[in-house]
Amino acid sequence: MWEHVCRAAAADTGRPGVLEHVDSVRIVYCQSWQYDDPTARLADELGIEARHRHYSGIGGTTPHLLVQDAAAAMLRGELDLALVAGAEALDTMRLFAKDGRTPAWSHAHPQAPPMPFEAPPHPAEIAHELSSASLPFSLFDIGRRAARGVSPQDYRRSLGHLLSAMTEVAATNPHAKFSFRRSADEIVTPTAENRWINYPYTKWMVSVMDVDMAGALLLATHNKADELGIPAERRVYLRGWCYAQDPVYLAEHPSFGASVAMREASSEALGMAGIGADDVAHLDLYSCFSAAVNLGRDALQLADDDPRPLTVTGGLPYFGGPASNYMTHSIASIADVLRRDPGSYGIVSGVGMFMTKHVYGVYSTEPGPMTPPDDTAAQVRVDSVGRPEIVDTYDGPAVIATYSVVHGRDGTPDGGFVICDLPSGARCYARIVDADLMAEAEEVELVGRAVQLVPGDANVNVVKP
Known about the structure:
Layout: H1 2-12, E1 24-27, H2 38-46, E2 52-55, H3 62-75, E3 81-89, H4 90-98, H5 123-127, H6 134-148, H7 152-170, H8 184-188, E4 196-198, E5 201-202, E6 212-220, H9 222-228, E7 237-245, H10 260-273, E8 282-284, H11 290-299, H12 326-340, E9 345-352, E10 357-364, H13 375-383, E11 396-407, E12 413-421, E13 427-432, H14 435-441, E14 450-455, E15 461-463
Parallel strand pairs: 1-2, 1-3, 8-9
Antiparallel strand pairs: 3-6, 4-5, 7-10, 9-10, 11-12, 11-14, 12-13, 14-15
Helix pairs in contact: 6-11, 10-11, 10-13
């Protein structure tokens, strides 16, 4: 898959022989299969003698980090033509696992390394079983809902409209996993086919990782593109970028209704390009879950009724969310869109881990002045906001800061999860085990409610009914 899309990217430049000039090969971490030496194997398949090779870590921001790091190296004069590729065969792996088989694919790592997580999970998050990917994002959507003062019913309807618009884009994209249109009501209404995942998300509201997808990007300096004879109409320029991080652990986030890192990274990227959000014609906001889209558009100060589509692919729930590699597809797609609309600007965003990593990239068919962003200053501004301390166990009064209800595969509630503000200014995690309170949590707003926490088993805090 890597080889196929790399050759397709070369053909897309109008100069298929461009690959022989590549001096940097960068591959997005592949979750489907662990190769012994991924970059060397791909370089050999392509006949590339690249002096720089890099195999990435994980996270939804990864492809853009590979692109912008290559761009920064080009500005320093260290390289002039880079190849970025990523692929996943997670749907095929699912089918193998279903049949109890293991694929006999090439060049397997003799001892597959562990997933390259950058930080260990917090002991309190482990104790409270904060394990599913969707649960953390639902906490942010509910935090945003409470901050905006919107009723639970109205907010879920707004999520349906947000995602329904994405299905319209996916329906016109031949590369999308799902090419159907769904109404807002269909998306948010739980049924046997569209079961609850965790409140407020149903199955049709969450990213689909089980896809077979691959993408590749070629990044060149302007002079190298001239030397290779790349036609002007094929070129799309990276005009701005920035990466910033919110806290790693959920309870450390100063707000569940906004992202400081998204605000700073998007502002820095747009400022680097010399434009504002109103100047952007095309957007692809990372959409693993609706919270990522919502906080992303809030960071850009986009109104809820802004007419611009928020995806050019159809989004991760409908186009597909191939592990760490989605942004390779969003960048390639924004390039195609901009080619059809010369002179316009596009922006893509990425989100990594539990709303921790954030990246924005601004693109245009027109070149412009290029000075690398001040990522350090942006991160200093993020960190200056501060973060609450996490208390592992707690017994006493607390106030709910955000919450969700987790559902089993049969659609019934398995338990509630809350993050609470404590009188000391610290935060803690807790579980809801009372069935009546879980039912109430899905009907009324619990954010801001005063509760009493009591100790449970295995260092778990429990909300007293």
